[in-house]
Amino acid sequence: MAKLYFRYGAMGCGKTMQLLQVAFNYEERGHKVCVMKPATDTKNGTKLLTRIGPERETDFCFEKDSDLFNFVKENFSDAHCVLVDEAQFLTQEQVDQLMMITIKLDIPVMAYGLRLNFKREAGGFDGATRLLQIAHDIEEIKTICECGKKATYNARFVNGKMVADGPDILIDDGKSEITYKAICPACYQKHLEGRK
Ligand SMILES: [Zn+2]
After folding, report:
1. Nearest to 183 by CA among 8, 2, 11
2. Whether the predicted pLDDT of 86 surpasses 70
3. Is pLDDT at 124 greater than 70 in this prediction?
4. pTM for this model (two decimals)
5. Are strands 4-8 and 55-57 parallel, antiparallel or unpaired?
6. Is the predicted pLDDT of residue 196 greater than 90, yes or no?
7. DSSP-based three-state secondary structure for 190
8. The dihedral of CA 34, 40, 41, 47: what is its sign?
9. How far apart are alpha carbons 112 and 181 in whole angstroms?
């Protein structure tokens, strides 16, 4: 039976790179894949970009109310794999639709995304929370903090200073420099206490 996979990791751990590698492997063998991402992630238009270089156009840039099961059933029922980037932005219903793709269409689905938002809120990302609850197979993609320990938190920096609160999606107003970094819990705490 096809499975729903969740591959999670902090920012910059290479999630999109892994997704593109999986897509390449299928296509090299002549198999069709369906690559999707949420329209919430508008920074690169409809493309998937990686820091290392490879990029790819998505097959579907979906909205919060898109029905992913129906989309795949109608357009990609012959696909060998469905790949979803930025899966933390899925709604709970959409994660359930991904599960239905594995059950009713027997197509494996691999979802890549963050587990935690920058505020470390419980249930901060509906998509990640639901995937952690129901995915058949969950695995972490590891990455390293600036101190060398394993990074599991995502930190938002505004003009070089970490912020632990604010809007979920920050619009770049051109006045302040906004960056995100994967860091370990200890460094997150140090930043919070102003010790870094
Ligand atoms: Zn650290």
Report:
1. 11
2. yes
3. yes
4. 0.94
5. unpaired
6. no
7. helix
8. positive
9. 17
Catalytic residues: 86
pLDDT in tens, 30-67: 999 999 999 976 667 889 999 889 999 999 999 999 99
Q: How many CA atoms lie within 13 A of 106 on its CB side?
A: 2
Nearest residue to 72 (alpha-carbon basis) of 32, 42, 45: 32
Domain with CATH 3.40.50.300 in the chain: 4-140
Superfamily of domain 4-140: P-loop containing nucleotide triphosphate hydrolases (3.40.50.300)
Q: How far from the centroid of its chain's Cα atoms is residue 98's Cα?
A: 14
Distance 149 CA to ligand 1 centre (A): 5
Place of tokens 């709604």: 91
Calculate what percentage of the chain has a pLDDT beyond 90.
85
159 Cα: distance to centroid of ligand 1 (angstroms): 20
